[in-house]
Amino acid sequence: MATKSLTRRERIHLRVRKVVEGTPSRPRLAVFRSSKEIYAQIIDDLSGVTLCAATSLKKSGREVSGSKLDQARQVGKLIAEMAKAKGIESVSFDRGGFLYHGRVKSLAEGAREGGLNF
Protein backbone atom coordinates (compact mmCIF):
# COMPACT_ATOMS: atom_id res chain seq x y z
CA MET A 1 0.00 0.00 0.00
CA ALA A 2 1.53 3.28 -1.09
CA THR A 3 1.47 6.23 1.28
CA LYS A 4 2.20 9.82 0.45
CA SER A 5 5.05 11.20 2.49
CA LEU A 6 4.52 14.77 3.59
CA THR A 7 7.24 17.34 3.22
CA ARG A 8 8.63 19.07 6.28
CA ARG A 9 6.66 22.24 5.52
CA GLU A 10 3.41 20.29 5.15
CA ARG A 11 3.95 18.58 8.52
CA ILE A 12 4.64 21.92 10.20
CA HIS A 13 1.59 23.43 8.51
CA LEU A 14 -0.65 20.66 9.85
CA ARG A 15 0.75 21.28 13.32
CA VAL A 16 0.08 25.03 13.03
CA ARG A 17 -3.44 24.50 11.65
CA LYS A 18 -4.41 22.42 14.71
CA VAL A 19 -4.16 25.65 16.70
CA VAL A 20 -4.89 28.50 14.26
CA GLU A 21 -8.53 28.85 13.19
CA GLY A 22 -10.34 31.61 11.34
CA THR A 23 -13.67 32.78 12.72
CA PRO A 24 -15.97 35.53 11.45
CA SER A 25 -14.80 37.85 14.23
CA ARG A 26 -11.10 36.94 13.82
CA PRO A 27 -10.36 35.42 10.40
CA ARG A 28 -7.13 33.67 9.44
CA LEU A 29 -4.40 35.44 7.45
CA ALA A 30 -2.85 32.61 5.41
CA VAL A 31 0.50 33.09 3.68
CA PHE A 32 1.97 31.07 0.83
CA ARG A 33 5.47 31.72 -0.44
CA SER A 34 6.69 30.29 -3.74
CA SER A 35 10.17 30.75 -5.11
CA LYS A 36 9.12 33.84 -7.10
CA GLU A 37 5.89 35.21 -5.61
CA ILE A 38 4.11 35.60 -2.28
CA TYR A 39 0.37 35.28 -1.66
CA ALA A 40 -1.85 36.25 1.29
CA GLN A 41 -5.51 35.46 1.94
CA ILE A 42 -7.89 36.32 4.74
CA ILE A 43 -10.15 33.31 5.32
CA ASP A 44 -13.22 32.62 7.44
CA ASP A 45 -12.85 28.89 8.15
CA LEU A 46 -16.30 28.40 9.64
CA SER A 47 -18.06 29.33 6.41
CA GLY A 48 -15.14 28.33 4.16
CA VAL A 49 -14.94 31.70 2.43
CA THR A 50 -11.94 33.74 1.32
CA LEU A 51 -12.75 37.31 2.35
CA CYS A 52 -9.90 39.00 0.48
CA ALA A 53 -6.61 38.10 -1.16
CA ALA A 54 -3.45 39.87 -2.31
CA THR A 55 -0.46 38.71 -4.32
CA SER A 56 2.82 39.96 -5.73
CA LEU A 57 1.89 38.79 -9.24
CA LYS A 58 2.20 41.51 -11.86
CA LYS A 59 -1.12 40.60 -13.51
CA SER A 60 -3.07 41.08 -10.27
CA GLY A 61 -3.78 44.70 -11.10
CA ARG A 62 -1.86 46.25 -8.21
CA GLU A 63 1.79 46.94 -9.00
CA VAL A 64 4.37 45.75 -6.48
CA SER A 65 8.03 46.27 -7.21
CA GLY A 66 11.45 46.04 -5.66
CA SER A 67 13.20 43.10 -4.08
CA LYS A 68 11.25 40.08 -2.86
CA LEU A 69 11.37 41.44 0.71
CA ASP A 70 9.96 44.78 -0.47
CA GLN A 71 7.26 43.00 -2.47
CA ALA A 72 6.26 40.96 0.59
CA ARG A 73 5.97 44.11 2.72
CA GLN A 74 3.83 45.76 0.02
CA VAL A 75 1.56 42.69 -0.18
CA GLY A 76 1.18 42.85 3.62
CA LYS A 77 0.15 46.51 3.45
CA LEU A 78 -2.22 45.73 0.57
CA ILE A 79 -3.95 42.88 2.42
CA ALA A 80 -4.29 45.09 5.51
CA GLU A 81 -5.86 47.83 3.38
CA MET A 82 -8.33 45.36 1.86
CA ALA A 83 -9.18 43.95 5.29
CA LYS A 84 -9.80 47.42 6.73
CA ALA A 85 -12.19 48.12 3.85
CA LYS A 86 -14.17 45.01 4.85
CA GLY A 87 -14.17 45.99 8.54
CA ILE A 88 -11.60 43.43 9.71
CA GLU A 89 -9.36 44.72 12.51
CA SER A 90 -7.66 41.59 13.88
CA VAL A 91 -6.63 38.28 12.34
CA SER A 92 -4.92 35.02 13.27
CA PHE A 93 -1.62 34.68 11.43
CA ASP A 94 -1.08 31.37 9.62
CA ARG A 95 2.49 31.22 8.33
CA GLY A 96 1.68 28.12 6.26
CA GLY A 97 4.48 25.97 7.64
CA PHE A 98 7.12 28.46 6.56
CA LEU A 99 9.64 29.73 9.09
CA TYR A 100 8.87 33.16 10.48
CA HIS A 101 11.73 35.07 8.89
CA GLY A 102 12.55 36.67 5.57
CA ARG A 103 9.58 37.25 3.29
CA VAL A 104 6.99 35.79 5.68
CA LYS A 105 8.15 38.11 8.47
CA SER A 106 8.25 41.05 6.06
CA LEU A 107 4.64 40.38 4.98
CA ALA A 108 3.55 40.21 8.64
CA GLU A 109 5.30 43.49 9.44
CA GLY A 110 3.68 45.14 6.42
CA ALA A 111 0.25 43.94 7.55
CA ARG A 112 0.90 45.33 11.04
CA GLU A 113 1.99 48.65 9.53
CA GLY A 114 -1.27 48.64 7.55
CA GLY A 115 -3.24 48.39 10.81
CA LEU A 116 -3.99 44.68 11.30
CA ASN A 117 -3.66 43.25 14.82
CA PHE A 118 -2.27 39.76 15.41
Question: Can you tell me about this structure?
Answer:
By secondary structure, this protein is of the alpha+beta class. It has one domain (8-113): Nucleotidyltransferase, domain 5, CATH 3.30.420. It is 33% helix and 19% strand. Strand 2 and strand 3 form a beta hairpin. Helix 2 (68-85) runs parallel beside helix 3. The N and C termini lie far apart (43 Å).
Short description:
This protein is an alpha+beta fold and about 120 residues long.
Give the name of the CATH architecture.
Answer: 2-Layer Sandwich
Structural class: alpha+beta
What Rg, in angstroms, do the CA atoms define? 14 Å
Which CATH first-tier class would you pick?
Alpha Beta
Give the CA-CA distance, first to last residue. Answer: 43 Å
Q: Helix amount, in percent?
A: 25-40%
**Percent strand:** 15-25%
**In total, how many beta strands?**
4
Which whole number gives the mean pLDDT?
Answer: 93
| CA-based shape | globular
Key attributes of the depicted protein:
single chain; 118 residues; alpha+beta; Nucleotidyltransferase, domain 5; 4-stranded mixed sheet; 4 strands; 19% strand
Topology of this protein?
Blueprint: H1 8-17, E1 28-33, E2 38-44, E3 49-55, H2 68-85, E4 92-94, H3 103-113
Parallel strand pairs: 1-4
Antiparallel strand pairs: 1-2, 2-3
